[in-house]
Amino acid sequence: MGSPVLTLIAQRVALGILLLFAVSVLIFAGTQILPGDVAQSILGQDATPEAVANLRQELGLNDPAYARYFHWLGGVLTGDLGSTLTTRQEIAKTLMPRLWNTLFLAFWAAIVAVPLAIVLGLLAVRYRNGWVDKLISGLALASTSLPEFFIGYLLILSFAVTQQWLPAISTVYDGMPFFDKLKAIVLPATALVLVVLAHMMRMTRAAILNVMQSAYIETAELKGLSASAVIRKHALPNAVAPIINVVMLNLAFLIVGVVVVEVIFVYPGMGQYLVDHVVKRDVPVVQAVGLVFAAIYIGLNIVADVAAILANPRLRHPK
Amino acid sequence: MFDLKNLTVSAGIGLILFALFLLCALFAPLIAPFPMSQIAGDVWGPLSSTHWLGTDNLGRDLLSRMVYGARTTIFIAAMATALSFSLGAILGLMAAVVGGLVDTLMSRFVDLLMAIPTLIFGLVVLAVLPSNNVTLILVMGVLSSTRVYRLSRAVAVDINAMDFVEAAKVRGEGLGWIIFREILPNALSPLVAELGLRFIFSVLFLSTLSFLGLGVQPPEADWGGMVKENKDGIVFGIPAALIPASAIATLSISVNLVADWVLTSTASLKGGRE
Fold this sequence. Notes:
The structure holds two protein chains of two kinds.
Chain A: H1 3-30, H2 38-43, H3 49-59, H4 65-77, H5 91-126, H6 131-145, H7 148-162, H8 178-184, H9 186-212, H10 215-222, H11 227-264, H12 270-279, H13 283-311
Chain B: H1 9-26, H2 28-31, H3 62-98, H4 100-114, H5 118-126, H6 133-160, H7 163-170, H8 175-211, H9 223-230, H10 242-267
Helix pairs in contact in B: 1-3, 1-10, 3-4, 3-6, 3-8, 4-6, 5-6, 6-8, 8-9, 8-10, 9-10
Protein backbone atom coordinates (compact mmCIF):
# COMPACT_ATOMS: atom_id res chain seq x y z
CA MET A 1 0.00 0.00 0.00
CA GLY A 2 1.59 3.24 -1.11
CA SER A 3 0.75 6.69 0.04
CA PRO A 4 -1.48 7.72 -2.92
CA VAL A 5 -4.06 5.16 -1.79
CA LEU A 6 -4.08 6.54 1.74
CA THR A 7 -4.34 10.11 0.49
CA LEU A 8 -7.24 9.21 -1.77
CA ILE A 9 -9.06 7.38 1.00
CA ALA A 10 -8.48 10.22 3.46
CA GLN A 11 -9.82 12.68 0.89
CA ARG A 12 -12.89 10.57 0.25
CA VAL A 13 -13.67 10.15 3.96
CA ALA A 14 -13.17 13.86 4.62
CA LEU A 15 -15.50 14.68 1.73
CA GLY A 16 -18.07 12.29 3.15
CA ILE A 17 -17.95 13.92 6.57
CA LEU A 18 -18.32 17.35 4.98
CA LEU A 19 -21.31 16.06 3.04
CA LEU A 20 -22.83 14.71 6.23
CA PHE A 21 -22.66 18.16 7.83
CA ALA A 22 -24.26 19.70 4.76
CA VAL A 23 -26.99 17.05 4.91
CA SER A 24 -27.63 17.82 8.57
CA VAL A 25 -28.18 21.47 7.61
CA LEU A 26 -30.57 20.38 4.85
CA ILE A 27 -32.54 18.08 7.15
CA PHE A 28 -32.79 20.79 9.77
CA ALA A 29 -33.81 23.36 7.15
CA GLY A 30 -36.33 20.89 5.70
CA THR A 31 -38.23 20.93 8.98
CA GLN A 32 -38.22 24.74 9.15
CA ILE A 33 -39.91 25.29 5.79
CA LEU A 34 -43.16 26.13 7.50
CA PRO A 35 -42.61 28.76 10.16
CA GLY A 36 -45.92 27.59 11.62
CA ASP A 37 -45.94 27.53 15.41
CA VAL A 38 -44.85 24.10 16.61
CA ALA A 39 -45.91 24.93 20.16
CA GLN A 40 -49.39 25.88 19.00
CA SER A 41 -49.79 22.68 17.02
CA ILE A 42 -48.66 20.50 19.96
CA LEU A 43 -51.04 22.12 22.41
CA GLY A 44 -53.94 22.42 19.98
CA GLN A 45 -56.11 25.38 19.09
CA ASP A 46 -57.66 25.71 22.56
CA ALA A 47 -54.39 26.37 24.38
CA THR A 48 -54.03 29.60 26.31
CA PRO A 49 -51.45 32.07 24.99
CA GLU A 50 -49.50 31.68 28.26
CA ALA A 51 -49.19 27.90 27.81
CA VAL A 52 -48.03 28.37 24.23
CA ALA A 53 -45.48 30.98 25.30
CA ASN A 54 -44.19 28.67 28.05
CA LEU A 55 -43.77 25.78 25.66
CA ARG A 56 -42.07 28.03 23.11
CA GLN A 57 -39.63 29.06 25.81
CA GLU A 58 -39.06 25.46 26.84
CA LEU A 59 -38.44 24.27 23.29
CA GLY A 60 -36.16 27.21 22.57
CA LEU A 61 -38.38 28.33 19.69
CA ASN A 62 -37.69 31.99 20.46
CA ASP A 63 -34.08 31.63 19.33
CA PRO A 64 -33.23 32.22 15.67
CA ALA A 65 -33.06 29.14 13.42
CA TYR A 66 -29.27 29.03 13.15
CA ALA A 67 -28.88 29.10 16.93
CA ARG A 68 -31.29 26.19 17.22
CA TYR A 69 -29.38 24.35 14.49
CA PHE A 70 -26.07 24.63 16.31
CA HIS A 71 -27.72 23.65 19.57
CA TRP A 72 -29.20 20.60 17.86
CA LEU A 73 -25.92 19.73 16.10
CA GLY A 74 -24.01 20.05 19.36
CA GLY A 75 -26.45 17.63 20.97
CA VAL A 76 -26.19 15.17 18.09
CA LEU A 77 -22.39 15.20 18.22
CA THR A 78 -22.44 14.38 21.92
CA GLY A 79 -25.01 11.64 21.50
CA ASP A 80 -27.97 13.66 22.74
CA LEU A 81 -30.73 13.54 20.14
CA GLY A 82 -33.17 15.51 22.25
CA SER A 83 -36.54 14.26 23.44
CA THR A 84 -39.82 13.62 21.67
CA LEU A 85 -42.36 16.42 21.62
CA THR A 86 -45.32 14.23 22.42
CA THR A 87 -44.11 11.99 25.25
CA ARG A 88 -40.90 13.76 26.33
CA GLN A 89 -38.90 10.55 26.13
CA GLU A 90 -35.22 10.62 25.28
CA ILE A 91 -34.96 9.84 21.57
CA ALA A 92 -31.52 8.22 21.77
CA LYS A 93 -32.75 5.62 24.28
CA THR A 94 -35.62 4.51 22.04
CA LEU A 95 -33.64 4.81 18.86
CA MET A 96 -30.67 2.57 19.73
CA PRO A 97 -32.52 -0.77 20.09
CA ARG A 98 -34.56 0.07 17.01
CA LEU A 99 -31.42 0.88 15.05
CA TRP A 100 -30.01 -2.55 15.98
CA ASN A 101 -33.26 -4.23 14.93
CA THR A 102 -33.14 -2.48 11.56
CA LEU A 103 -29.48 -3.35 11.05
CA PHE A 104 -30.21 -6.96 12.06
CA LEU A 105 -32.93 -7.21 9.42
CA ALA A 106 -30.88 -5.44 6.74
CA PHE A 107 -27.82 -7.57 7.57
CA TRP A 108 -29.61 -10.88 6.97
CA ALA A 109 -31.27 -9.57 3.84
CA ALA A 110 -27.86 -8.50 2.53
CA ILE A 111 -26.22 -11.83 3.45
CA VAL A 112 -28.72 -13.58 1.19
CA ALA A 113 -29.12 -10.99 -1.54
CA VAL A 114 -25.49 -10.13 -2.32
CA PRO A 115 -24.08 -13.61 -3.17
CA LEU A 116 -27.31 -14.58 -4.92
CA ALA A 117 -27.27 -11.46 -7.08
CA ILE A 118 -23.61 -11.90 -8.03
CA VAL A 119 -24.04 -15.58 -8.94
CA LEU A 120 -27.18 -14.86 -10.98
CA GLY A 121 -25.45 -11.90 -12.64
CA LEU A 122 -22.52 -14.14 -13.61
CA LEU A 123 -24.93 -16.76 -14.96
CA ALA A 124 -26.69 -14.11 -17.03
CA VAL A 125 -23.35 -13.09 -18.57
CA ARG A 126 -22.27 -16.71 -19.14
CA TYR A 127 -25.52 -17.46 -21.01
CA ARG A 128 -26.07 -13.95 -22.32
CA ASN A 129 -28.94 -13.49 -24.77
CA GLY A 130 -30.08 -17.02 -23.92
CA TRP A 131 -33.24 -17.81 -22.01
CA VAL A 132 -31.54 -17.55 -18.60
CA ASP A 133 -30.53 -14.01 -19.42
CA LYS A 134 -33.97 -13.11 -20.80
CA LEU A 135 -35.70 -14.59 -17.76
CA ILE A 136 -33.47 -12.57 -15.45
CA SER A 137 -34.07 -9.36 -17.40
CA GLY A 138 -37.82 -9.97 -17.39
CA LEU A 139 -37.88 -10.59 -13.65
CA ALA A 140 -35.78 -7.48 -13.12
CA LEU A 141 -38.26 -5.35 -15.07
CA ALA A 142 -41.16 -6.81 -13.11
CA SER A 143 -39.53 -6.33 -9.74
CA THR A 144 -38.51 -2.71 -10.33
CA SER A 145 -42.18 -2.01 -11.07
CA LEU A 146 -43.55 -3.85 -8.06
CA PRO A 147 -44.21 -1.77 -4.98
CA GLU A 148 -42.68 -3.22 -1.80
CA PHE A 149 -46.10 -3.72 -0.23
CA PHE A 150 -47.24 -5.93 -3.11
CA ILE A 151 -44.32 -8.30 -2.50
CA GLY A 152 -44.77 -8.05 1.27
CA TYR A 153 -48.48 -8.83 1.42
CA LEU A 154 -48.17 -11.54 -1.21
CA LEU A 155 -45.56 -13.20 1.04
CA ILE A 156 -47.80 -12.84 4.09
CA LEU A 157 -50.80 -14.22 2.24
CA SER A 158 -48.85 -17.21 0.90
CA PHE A 159 -46.63 -18.15 3.84
CA ALA A 160 -48.37 -16.84 6.92
CA VAL A 161 -52.08 -17.18 6.08
CA THR A 162 -52.64 -19.87 3.45
CA GLN A 163 -49.69 -21.93 4.71
CA GLN A 164 -49.15 -21.06 8.34
CA TRP A 165 -45.41 -21.62 8.31
CA LEU A 166 -44.24 -18.24 9.50
CA PRO A 167 -45.62 -15.39 11.59
CA ALA A 168 -47.39 -12.58 9.70
CA ILE A 169 -46.20 -10.02 12.23
CA SER A 170 -42.49 -9.90 12.98
CA THR A 171 -42.30 -9.24 16.69
CA VAL A 172 -38.83 -9.20 18.19
CA TYR A 173 -37.95 -8.17 21.71
CA ASP A 174 -34.91 -7.99 23.95
CA GLY A 175 -33.69 -11.35 25.17
CA MET A 176 -35.57 -13.21 22.46
CA PRO A 177 -33.72 -16.44 21.54
CA PHE A 178 -31.60 -15.97 18.42
CA PHE A 179 -33.36 -18.59 16.30
CA ASP A 180 -36.81 -17.28 17.19
CA LYS A 181 -35.59 -13.87 16.08
CA LEU A 182 -34.36 -15.33 12.80
CA LYS A 183 -37.69 -17.06 12.24
CA ALA A 184 -39.51 -13.81 12.88
CA ILE A 185 -37.56 -11.94 10.23
CA VAL A 186 -37.67 -14.58 7.47
CA LEU A 187 -40.59 -12.93 5.67
CA PRO A 188 -39.47 -9.28 5.92
CA ALA A 189 -35.93 -10.28 4.95
CA THR A 190 -37.27 -12.20 1.95
CA ALA A 191 -39.31 -9.18 0.89
CA LEU A 192 -36.21 -7.00 1.12
CA VAL A 193 -34.12 -9.50 -0.84
CA LEU A 194 -36.72 -9.54 -3.60
CA VAL A 195 -36.81 -5.74 -3.64
CA VAL A 196 -33.06 -5.34 -4.25
CA LEU A 197 -32.12 -8.63 -5.92
CA ALA A 198 -33.16 -7.94 -9.51
CA HIS A 199 -31.60 -4.51 -9.56
CA MET A 200 -28.33 -5.75 -8.11
CA MET A 201 -28.30 -8.65 -10.54
CA ARG A 202 -28.81 -6.46 -13.58
CA MET A 203 -26.15 -4.00 -12.52
CA THR A 204 -23.70 -6.84 -11.84
CA ARG A 205 -24.44 -8.19 -15.31
CA ALA A 206 -23.85 -4.76 -16.85
CA ALA A 207 -20.59 -4.31 -14.92
CA ILE A 208 -19.18 -7.64 -16.12
CA LEU A 209 -20.42 -7.13 -19.69
CA ASN A 210 -18.64 -3.80 -19.70
CA VAL A 211 -15.36 -5.54 -18.84
CA MET A 212 -16.12 -8.27 -21.39
CA GLN A 213 -15.74 -5.73 -24.19
CA SER A 214 -12.07 -5.12 -23.40
CA ALA A 215 -9.34 -6.25 -25.78
CA TYR A 216 -7.74 -8.62 -23.26
CA ILE A 217 -11.00 -10.57 -23.04
CA GLU A 218 -10.95 -11.04 -26.79
CA THR A 219 -7.36 -12.27 -26.49
CA ALA A 220 -8.37 -14.72 -23.81
CA GLU A 221 -11.24 -15.98 -25.99
CA LEU A 222 -8.98 -16.25 -29.04
CA LYS A 223 -6.39 -18.29 -27.19
CA GLY A 224 -9.14 -20.83 -26.64
CA LEU A 225 -10.20 -20.44 -23.01
CA SER A 226 -13.70 -21.64 -22.20
CA ALA A 227 -16.38 -19.01 -21.59
CA SER A 228 -16.47 -19.80 -17.86
CA ALA A 229 -12.69 -19.52 -17.56
CA VAL A 230 -12.71 -16.16 -19.34
CA ILE A 231 -15.28 -14.82 -16.93
CA ARG A 232 -13.67 -16.34 -13.84
CA LYS A 233 -10.02 -15.53 -14.52
CA HIS A 234 -10.13 -12.41 -16.65
CA ALA A 235 -13.45 -10.58 -16.38
CA LEU A 236 -14.34 -11.06 -12.72
CA PRO A 237 -11.11 -9.70 -11.13
CA ASN A 238 -11.47 -6.52 -13.17
CA ALA A 239 -15.16 -6.22 -12.47
CA VAL A 240 -14.69 -6.37 -8.69
CA ALA A 241 -14.62 -2.60 -8.21
CA PRO A 242 -17.82 -1.91 -10.17
CA ILE A 243 -19.52 -4.88 -8.52
CA ILE A 244 -18.62 -3.62 -5.03
CA ASN A 245 -20.06 -0.29 -6.10
CA VAL A 246 -23.27 -1.95 -7.27
CA VAL A 247 -23.58 -3.90 -4.04
CA MET A 248 -23.10 -0.82 -1.86
CA LEU A 249 -25.54 1.25 -3.90
CA ASN A 250 -28.15 -1.43 -3.46
CA LEU A 251 -27.47 -1.82 0.23
CA ALA A 252 -28.21 1.88 0.48
CA PHE A 253 -31.40 1.17 -1.45
CA LEU A 254 -32.17 -1.59 1.03
CA ILE A 255 -31.97 0.91 3.87
CA VAL A 256 -34.82 2.82 2.21
CA GLY A 257 -36.82 -0.31 1.40
CA VAL A 258 -36.57 -1.14 5.09
CA VAL A 259 -38.95 1.74 5.95
CA VAL A 260 -41.86 0.27 4.02
CA VAL A 261 -41.08 -3.35 4.83
CA GLU A 262 -40.98 -2.60 8.56
CA VAL A 263 -44.41 -1.01 8.36
CA ILE A 264 -45.82 -4.00 6.46
CA PHE A 265 -44.52 -6.54 8.95
CA VAL A 266 -44.98 -4.31 12.02
CA TYR A 267 -41.28 -4.81 12.76
CA PRO A 268 -40.00 -2.65 15.65
CA GLY A 269 -37.25 -0.94 13.67
CA MET A 270 -36.16 2.58 12.86
CA GLY A 271 -38.32 2.90 9.73
CA GLN A 272 -41.52 2.36 11.62
CA TYR A 273 -40.38 4.75 14.32
CA LEU A 274 -39.83 7.38 11.62
CA VAL A 275 -43.21 6.87 9.94
CA ASP A 276 -45.11 6.88 13.25
CA HIS A 277 -43.56 10.19 14.23
CA VAL A 278 -44.03 11.81 10.84
CA VAL A 279 -47.74 11.13 11.31
CA LYS A 280 -47.59 12.67 14.80
CA ARG A 281 -45.52 15.58 13.41
CA ASP A 282 -42.94 14.98 16.12
CA VAL A 283 -40.15 16.99 14.51
CA PRO A 284 -37.17 16.15 16.81
CA VAL A 285 -37.69 12.41 16.20
CA VAL A 286 -38.05 12.90 12.46
CA GLN A 287 -34.85 14.98 12.35
CA ALA A 288 -32.91 12.43 14.38
CA VAL A 289 -34.05 9.37 12.45
CA GLY A 290 -33.69 11.16 9.11
CA LEU A 291 -30.12 12.06 10.02
CA VAL A 292 -29.30 8.47 11.04
CA PHE A 293 -30.72 7.13 7.77
CA ALA A 294 -28.78 9.73 5.78
CA ALA A 295 -25.58 8.93 7.71
CA ILE A 296 -25.92 5.21 6.94
CA TYR A 297 -26.59 6.00 3.28
CA ILE A 298 -23.59 8.30 2.98
CA GLY A 299 -21.44 5.87 4.98
CA LEU A 300 -22.21 3.05 2.56
CA ASN A 301 -21.34 5.28 -0.36
CA ILE A 302 -17.99 6.13 1.24
CA VAL A 303 -17.29 2.42 1.82
CA ALA A 304 -18.12 1.77 -1.84
CA ASP A 305 -15.68 4.40 -3.04
CA VAL A 306 -12.94 3.29 -0.65
CA ALA A 307 -13.40 -0.32 -1.75
CA ALA A 308 -13.18 0.75 -5.39
CA ILE A 309 -9.93 2.60 -4.63
CA LEU A 310 -8.51 -0.45 -2.85
CA ALA A 311 -9.57 -2.79 -5.66
CA ASN A 312 -7.75 -0.74 -8.28
CA PRO A 313 -4.25 -2.23 -8.54
CA ARG A 314 -2.95 0.76 -10.51
CA LEU A 315 -3.20 2.94 -7.41
CA ARG A 316 -1.22 0.52 -5.27
CA HIS A 317 2.08 1.21 -7.01
CA PRO A 318 3.18 4.83 -6.68
CA LYS A 319 4.90 6.11 -9.79
CA MET B 1 -40.59 10.86 -34.30
CA PHE B 2 -42.15 7.61 -33.08
CA ASP B 3 -43.32 5.53 -36.00
CA LEU B 4 -46.23 3.35 -34.89
CA LYS B 5 -45.30 0.82 -37.57
CA ASN B 6 -42.19 -0.03 -35.57
CA LEU B 7 -44.23 -0.73 -32.46
CA THR B 8 -42.99 -3.89 -30.76
CA VAL B 9 -45.42 -6.38 -29.23
CA SER B 10 -44.41 -5.53 -25.67
CA ALA B 11 -44.64 -1.78 -26.31
CA GLY B 12 -48.08 -2.34 -27.87
CA ILE B 13 -49.27 -4.21 -24.79
CA GLY B 14 -47.89 -1.44 -22.61
CA LEU B 15 -49.59 1.23 -24.68
CA ILE B 16 -52.98 -0.54 -24.60
CA LEU B 17 -52.82 -1.10 -20.84
CA PHE B 18 -51.81 2.49 -20.24
CA ALA B 19 -54.65 3.73 -22.48
CA LEU B 20 -57.10 1.61 -20.47
CA PHE B 21 -55.90 3.10 -17.19
CA LEU B 22 -56.11 6.57 -18.70
CA LEU B 23 -59.68 5.98 -19.87
CA CYS B 24 -60.63 4.81 -16.37
CA ALA B 25 -59.08 7.94 -14.93
CA LEU B 26 -60.77 10.30 -17.40
CA PHE B 27 -64.26 8.79 -17.34
CA ALA B 28 -64.31 7.51 -13.76
CA PRO B 29 -67.89 8.63 -12.93
CA LEU B 30 -69.22 7.00 -16.12
CA ILE B 31 -67.38 3.70 -15.71
CA ALA B 32 -67.67 3.08 -11.98
CA PRO B 33 -70.80 1.04 -11.19
CA PHE B 34 -71.16 2.61 -7.72
CA PRO B 35 -70.34 6.05 -6.26
CA MET B 36 -66.91 6.21 -4.65
CA SER B 37 -67.94 6.31 -0.98
CA GLN B 38 -71.27 4.49 -1.09
CA ILE B 39 -71.46 1.48 1.21
CA ALA B 40 -72.87 -1.05 -1.20
CA GLY B 41 -72.40 -4.43 0.43
CA ASP B 42 -70.89 -6.46 3.24
CA VAL B 43 -67.45 -5.78 4.66
CA TRP B 44 -64.85 -7.54 2.48
CA GLY B 45 -67.46 -9.28 0.36
CA PRO B 46 -66.17 -11.83 -2.16
CA LEU B 47 -66.05 -11.32 -5.92
CA SER B 48 -69.57 -11.50 -7.34
CA SER B 49 -71.60 -10.37 -10.32
CA THR B 50 -72.63 -7.11 -8.58
CA HIS B 51 -69.19 -6.46 -7.10
CA TRP B 52 -66.68 -7.68 -9.68
CA LEU B 53 -63.72 -7.15 -7.40
CA GLY B 54 -65.58 -7.63 -4.12
CA THR B 55 -66.03 -4.95 -1.46
CA ASP B 56 -63.52 -3.22 0.79
CA ASN B 57 -63.03 -2.81 4.54
CA LEU B 58 -66.17 -0.67 4.89
CA GLY B 59 -68.26 -2.53 2.33
CA ARG B 60 -67.66 -0.10 -0.54
CA ASP B 61 -67.49 -1.48 -4.08
CA LEU B 62 -63.80 -2.15 -4.77
CA LEU B 63 -64.04 -1.85 -8.57
CA SER B 64 -65.58 1.62 -8.31
CA ARG B 65 -62.92 2.71 -5.86
CA MET B 66 -60.22 1.31 -8.14
CA VAL B 67 -61.60 3.38 -11.04
CA TYR B 68 -61.72 6.56 -8.95
CA GLY B 69 -58.34 5.65 -7.47
CA ALA B 70 -56.90 5.52 -10.99
CA ARG B 71 -58.03 9.11 -11.40
CA THR B 72 -56.37 10.35 -8.20
CA THR B 73 -53.17 8.32 -8.59
CA ILE B 74 -52.62 9.15 -12.25
CA PHE B 75 -53.54 12.81 -11.82
CA ILE B 76 -51.22 13.48 -8.89
CA ALA B 77 -48.39 11.45 -10.41
CA ALA B 78 -48.79 13.25 -13.75
CA MET B 79 -48.78 16.68 -12.10
CA ALA B 80 -45.68 15.81 -10.07
CA THR B 81 -43.99 14.52 -13.23
CA ALA B 82 -44.88 17.69 -15.12
CA LEU B 83 -43.47 19.82 -12.32
CA SER B 84 -40.28 17.76 -11.99
CA PHE B 85 -39.84 17.97 -15.73
CA SER B 86 -40.31 21.65 -16.24
CA LEU B 87 -38.25 22.50 -13.16
CA GLY B 88 -35.46 19.99 -13.79
CA ALA B 89 -35.19 20.55 -17.54
CA ILE B 90 -35.26 24.34 -17.44
CA LEU B 91 -32.74 24.59 -14.61
CA GLY B 92 -30.56 21.85 -16.11
CA LEU B 93 -30.48 23.47 -19.55
CA MET B 94 -29.88 26.85 -17.99
CA ALA B 95 -26.98 25.51 -15.91
CA ALA B 96 -25.40 24.07 -19.04
CA VAL B 97 -25.77 27.27 -21.07
CA VAL B 98 -24.90 29.83 -18.39
CA GLY B 99 -22.18 27.74 -16.75
CA GLY B 100 -19.83 29.24 -14.20
CA LEU B 101 -20.97 29.97 -10.67
CA VAL B 102 -24.68 29.42 -11.39
CA ASP B 103 -23.94 25.94 -12.71
CA THR B 104 -21.65 25.07 -9.81
CA LEU B 105 -24.07 26.25 -7.15
CA MET B 106 -27.09 24.49 -8.62
CA SER B 107 -25.19 21.27 -9.32
CA ARG B 108 -23.74 21.09 -5.81
CA PHE B 109 -27.19 21.71 -4.34
CA VAL B 110 -28.64 18.89 -6.45
CA ASP B 111 -25.77 16.64 -5.31
CA LEU B 112 -26.68 17.48 -1.74
CA LEU B 113 -30.37 16.68 -2.28
CA MET B 114 -29.45 13.37 -3.88
CA ALA B 115 -27.18 12.46 -0.96
CA ILE B 116 -30.28 11.78 1.12
CA PRO B 117 -32.57 8.91 0.08
CA THR B 118 -35.64 10.46 -1.60
CA LEU B 119 -38.19 8.71 0.61
CA ILE B 120 -36.39 9.73 3.80
CA PHE B 121 -36.14 13.40 2.83
CA GLY B 122 -39.74 13.30 1.63
CA LEU B 123 -40.84 12.01 5.03
CA VAL B 124 -38.78 14.66 6.85
CA VAL B 125 -40.41 17.45 4.87
CA LEU B 126 -43.92 15.99 5.08
CA ALA B 127 -43.61 15.97 8.87
CA VAL B 128 -44.05 19.75 8.90
CA LEU B 129 -46.02 20.49 5.72
CA PRO B 130 -49.83 20.39 5.66
CA SER B 131 -51.14 17.12 4.27
CA ASN B 132 -52.95 17.88 1.04
CA ASN B 133 -52.56 17.05 -2.62
CA VAL B 134 -50.79 20.30 -3.54
CA THR B 135 -48.07 19.61 -0.96
CA LEU B 136 -47.69 16.08 -2.33
CA ILE B 137 -47.30 17.31 -5.90
CA LEU B 138 -44.76 19.94 -4.85
CA VAL B 139 -42.66 17.62 -2.69
CA MET B 140 -42.66 14.78 -5.20
CA GLY B 141 -42.04 17.11 -8.12
CA VAL B 142 -39.10 18.92 -6.52
CA LEU B 143 -37.43 15.74 -5.23
CA SER B 144 -37.85 14.02 -8.57
CA SER B 145 -36.57 17.01 -10.54
CA THR B 146 -33.00 16.39 -9.33
CA ARG B 147 -32.65 13.46 -11.72
CA VAL B 148 -34.15 15.38 -14.63
CA TYR B 149 -31.74 18.21 -13.85
CA ARG B 150 -28.74 15.91 -14.03
CA LEU B 151 -29.86 14.29 -17.26
CA SER B 152 -30.79 17.49 -19.07
CA ARG B 153 -27.63 19.24 -17.93
CA ALA B 154 -25.48 16.36 -19.18
CA VAL B 155 -27.25 16.29 -22.55
CA ALA B 156 -27.21 20.07 -22.91
CA VAL B 157 -23.49 20.43 -22.13
CA ASP B 158 -22.80 18.36 -25.25
CA ILE B 159 -25.23 20.28 -27.45
CA ASN B 160 -24.08 23.62 -26.10
CA ALA B 161 -20.63 23.05 -27.62
CA MET B 162 -22.05 22.61 -31.15
CA ASP B 163 -21.65 25.11 -33.95
CA PHE B 164 -25.32 26.04 -34.40
CA VAL B 165 -25.57 27.04 -30.74
CA GLU B 166 -22.37 29.02 -31.09
CA ALA B 167 -23.86 30.71 -34.15
CA ALA B 168 -27.02 31.63 -32.25
CA LYS B 169 -24.96 33.11 -29.43
CA VAL B 170 -22.84 35.11 -31.86
CA ARG B 171 -25.87 36.57 -33.59
CA GLY B 172 -26.96 37.78 -30.16
CA GLU B 173 -29.91 35.57 -29.25
CA GLY B 174 -31.07 35.74 -25.65
CA LEU B 175 -30.86 33.00 -23.05
CA GLY B 176 -34.50 31.98 -23.56
CA TRP B 177 -34.06 31.51 -27.30
CA ILE B 178 -30.90 29.45 -26.87
CA ILE B 179 -32.50 27.18 -24.28
CA PHE B 180 -35.91 26.69 -25.88
CA ARG B 181 -35.23 27.05 -29.60
CA GLU B 182 -31.70 25.70 -30.01
CA ILE B 183 -30.99 23.18 -27.26
CA LEU B 184 -34.36 21.83 -26.10
CA PRO B 185 -35.48 20.44 -29.50
CA ASN B 186 -32.21 18.54 -29.78
CA ALA B 187 -32.32 17.24 -26.23
CA LEU B 188 -35.90 16.03 -26.49
CA SER B 189 -35.50 12.32 -27.22
CA PRO B 190 -33.58 11.28 -24.10
CA LEU B 191 -35.88 13.51 -22.07
CA VAL B 192 -39.01 11.81 -23.43
CA ALA B 193 -37.77 8.40 -22.30
CA GLU B 194 -36.93 9.88 -18.91
CA LEU B 195 -40.48 11.24 -18.73
CA GLY B 196 -41.82 7.68 -18.55
CA LEU B 197 -39.37 6.69 -15.83
CA ARG B 198 -40.19 9.81 -13.78
CA PHE B 199 -43.90 9.02 -14.09
CA ILE B 200 -43.35 5.49 -12.75
CA PHE B 201 -41.23 6.90 -9.96
CA SER B 202 -44.04 9.33 -9.07
CA VAL B 203 -46.68 6.59 -9.09
CA LEU B 204 -44.60 4.35 -6.83
CA PHE B 205 -43.57 7.23 -4.56
CA LEU B 206 -47.15 8.45 -4.19
CA SER B 207 -48.41 4.93 -3.53
CA THR B 208 -45.73 4.37 -0.91
CA LEU B 209 -46.56 7.65 0.84
CA SER B 210 -50.29 6.89 0.78
CA PHE B 211 -49.61 3.39 2.04
CA LEU B 212 -47.68 4.89 4.96
CA GLY B 213 -50.66 7.17 5.62
CA LEU B 214 -48.85 10.32 4.52
CA GLY B 215 -50.09 10.69 0.97
CA VAL B 216 -53.63 11.20 -0.28
CA GLN B 217 -55.94 11.55 2.72
CA PRO B 218 -59.31 9.82 3.06
CA PRO B 219 -62.12 10.06 1.97
CA GLU B 220 -60.35 10.41 -1.38
CA ALA B 221 -59.34 7.09 -2.87
CA ASP B 222 -55.94 6.38 -4.31
CA TRP B 223 -54.36 3.00 -4.89
CA GLY B 224 -51.69 3.21 -2.19
CA GLY B 225 -54.26 4.37 0.34
CA MET B 226 -56.57 1.50 -0.65
CA VAL B 227 -53.78 -0.98 0.11
CA LYS B 228 -53.52 0.60 3.56
CA GLU B 229 -57.30 0.47 4.12
CA ASN B 230 -57.52 -3.19 3.22
CA LYS B 231 -54.23 -4.51 4.60
CA ASP B 232 -55.78 -5.81 7.81
CA GLY B 233 -57.82 -8.27 5.75
CA ILE B 234 -54.68 -10.06 4.63
CA VAL B 235 -54.27 -11.98 7.89
CA PHE B 236 -57.82 -13.28 7.47
CA GLY B 237 -56.91 -14.46 3.98
CA ILE B 238 -58.78 -11.65 2.21
CA PRO B 239 -56.69 -10.49 -0.77
CA ALA B 240 -58.52 -7.14 -1.27
CA ALA B 241 -55.30 -5.18 -0.58
CA LEU B 242 -53.48 -6.98 -3.37
CA ILE B 243 -55.89 -5.67 -6.03
CA PRO B 244 -54.84 -1.99 -5.85
CA ALA B 245 -51.24 -3.14 -5.32
CA SER B 246 -51.31 -5.13 -8.55
CA ALA B 247 -52.92 -2.19 -10.37
CA ILE B 248 -49.92 -0.06 -9.34
CA ALA B 249 -47.59 -2.78 -10.57
CA THR B 250 -49.46 -3.15 -13.89
CA LEU B 251 -49.50 0.59 -14.50
CA SER B 252 -45.78 0.94 -13.88
CA ILE B 253 -44.91 -2.13 -15.97
CA SER B 254 -46.98 -0.81 -18.88
CA VAL B 255 -45.28 2.60 -18.77
CA ASN B 256 -41.92 0.86 -18.44
CA LEU B 257 -42.57 -1.15 -21.61
CA VAL B 258 -43.43 1.97 -23.57
CA ALA B 259 -40.46 3.91 -22.17
CA ASP B 260 -38.13 1.06 -23.10
CA TRP B 261 -39.42 1.19 -26.65
CA VAL B 262 -39.07 4.97 -26.87
CA LEU B 263 -35.53 4.68 -25.57
CA THR B 264 -34.48 2.07 -28.15
CA SER B 265 -36.27 3.71 -31.08
CA THR B 266 -34.86 7.17 -30.40
CA ALA B 267 -31.37 5.81 -29.76
CA SER B 268 -31.19 4.78 -33.44
CA LEU B 269 -32.36 8.24 -34.50
CA LYS B 270 -29.15 9.74 -33.22
CA GLY B 271 -27.37 8.19 -36.18
CA GLY B 272 -24.48 6.77 -34.20
CA ARG B 273 -23.86 10.07 -32.41
CA GLU B 274 -23.82 8.55 -28.95
